[in-house]
Amino acid sequence: MTQNSQTGHSPVSSDSDHCPCGSAEAYTGCCGPYLNSAALPATAEQLMRSRYTAFVRRDHDYLLATWHPEQRPSRVRFAMAQRWLGLQIIAVDAGGPDETQGTVEFIARFKQLGRTQRLHELSRFVREEGRWYYRDGDHIQDK
Fold this sequence. Notes:
By secondary structure, this protein is of the alpha+beta class. It has helices at residues 32-35, 44-57, 60-65, and strands at 82-94, 101-112, 115-128, 131-139. A four-stranded antiparallel β-sheet has the order 1-2-3-4, with helices on one face. It is globular and about 45 Å long.
């Protein structure tokens, strides 16, 4: 395992473990090449999954690099008491390798301060100069 330069903490999972994005593939064959700058996500869904993995691994640099420059914050804050539990992709609209826009609806479960919670979001992605970026998203209130 390697240390994350932004937090000084070791990643949550090793490179041979299943990828945190829920694909059932090993990290090295799934989101690993994206987070290690060896490849670019070809679809909006791949970017969504890799960004979830970056949150799990607390990879500040990857999250900022994949945030659209017009909405990019100056830094990403991680809640140290937060533990990500899983990602479920609900729907994908467009966002293919030959498209320039797409949306991904997802639910990300996490535990913080002993309480399990959900983040339900419809995220918007754009592809510019061959690279996908997270643009923004709308939180969906569960009924």
